[in-house]
Each structure stands twice: as C-alpha cells, then as structure tokens.
Specification:
This protein has 4 helices and 5 strands. Helix 2 runs antiparallel to helix 3. The chain has a 3-stranded antiparallel beta sheet, with no helix packed on it. Strands 4-5 form a two-stranded antiparallel sheet.
C-alpha cells in the first residue's frame, strides 16, 4: 500500500494507469496462486486478477477515489489514443462500458 500511495503522490494527476493482464479461463491455462500458467509448459502466462480488484486495492491503499478512477478509466484511454477516436467519453450517443460498484468497491454489475 505504501508504494502505491507513493507512486500516486510522485506523479501529476492523470499520469498513472492501472491495467490488468488478466487472461481468459480455459483449458489452455492452469490457475494457481492468482496467476495463469500455460497448461502444456507451466510457463507464467498472466494474471487472473480482474481490473476491478486492482482498482479496489489502490483505493484501499489510501489513494483518493477520483485519482484511482482516472487511473483505470480516462488515463489508459488517453495513453492509447482513444480520446481522438471518440472512445472514453460518457455522452449521449457514445458507446461505453460501465461497471457499478457497491460501497466496498465490489462489482455489482458490469
């Protein structure tokens, strides 16, 4: 938690991205200790922690809610050039994906 807070304090607002390398759960992977491994070779393939868990952990580490939400929404879109393509806005007529959380930051609806 301290390293996360330090990272957010050391960068200007909107300059940290929270991302996930979560992999789909299927026969090609074995899940063990919060990670996915290739079934054939046992080589680490990626995480099985969803982005919502990363967001929750950042918020619980003491990062202000607005900063944590920016890091998981608008900042990654901006970094990937999505704003120029019309992605990343909540406006009438625009496509969007929304996630609803309860008061403990657990996903209620996705």
């Amino acid at each position: 938690p301290l390293a996360v807070k330090l990272a957010f304090r050391s960068k200007p607002s909107g300059n940290i991205c929270i991302v996930s390398d979560t992999m789909p759960s299927d026969a090609r992977f074995i899940q063990k200790d919060g990670a996915n491994y290739l079934a054939e070779s046992g080589i680490l393939a990626g995480s099985c922690s969803p982005l919502s868990l990363g967001l929750k952990n950042v918020i619980l580490s003491g990062v202000p809610l607005v900063e944590a939400l920016k890091a998981v929404t608008s900042t990654p879109v901006k970094c990937l050039g999505g704003l120029e393509r019309g992605v990343g806005y909540i406006r009438i007529g625009e496509k969007c994906d929304m996630t609803y959380f309860d008061e403990h930051f657990n996903v209620v609806l996705n």
